[in-house]
Specification:
The protein has 155 residues and is of the alpha+beta class. It has helices at 22-29, 81-92, 102-115, 121-127, 139-151, and strands at 2-7, 10-15, 48-51, 54-57, 70-72. It is 35% helix and 15% strand. The chain binds FE2/S2 (inorganic) cluster (FES) (2 copies). Residues 37-40, 42-47, 57, 59 line the site of one FE2/S2 (inorganic) cluster (FES).
């Protein structure tokens, strides 16, 4: 079946099996490699992206469900100033080790700071509660997100 949607601002029409997940469609058919395949059960957050601006785990979404929707992945935020701050802060704070969780963490952190530019530490923890990291112990990731928030100019 044909599926029509917008991927990082570009219109896409693709012929896909109705039972393929959004994760497999984007990663395997469209080369969106920032999406990582971890648990495939909605638990690890490695496949996190934005659907119409809202966080979703793409392994739990079937491709036909995105008909007419706007999909944003890390690739689409390459030049976004908030994402640039987050990327730099993750690097400077040592918040990346193996890096498998990092794209999902960055997307979740982006959504958090987009909606709440100056979160408390507890709000940061809640913001990334859907993302599992096996390497960092989370402390450096939380510090990186708080550090990125400090770089956001006050309104
Ligand atoms: Fe989707 Fe783990 S691969 S949440
Ligand atoms: Fe390795 Fe998070 S940096 S899983």
């Amino acid at each position: 079946m044909n599926i029509n949607f917008e991927l990082n601002g570009e219109p896409v029409t693709i012929d896909a099996q109705p039972n393929i997940t959004l994760l497999d469609l984007l990663r395997d058919e469209l080369g969106v490699k920032s999406l990582k395949k971890g648990c495939e059960q909605g638990e690890c957050g490695a496949c996190t992206l934005l659907i119409n601006g809202a966080l979703n785990t793409s392994c739990l979404v079937l491709a036909p469900q995105i008909e007419g929707k706007h999909i944003t992945t890390l690739e689409g935020l390459e030049h976004n100033s908030l994402m640039i701050d987050l990327r730099e802060s993750f690097i400077e704070n040592g918040a990346v080790q193996c890096g498998f969780c990092t794209p999902g963490m960055l997307i979740s952190a982006y959504a958090l700071l987009r909606d709440n530019p100056h979160p408390s530490e507890m709000e940061v923890k809640r913001g990334i509660e859907g993302n599992i990291c096996r390497c960092t112990g989370y402390t450096k990731i939380i510090e990186a997100i708080l550090d990125a928030a400090e770089r956001i100019a006050p309104e």
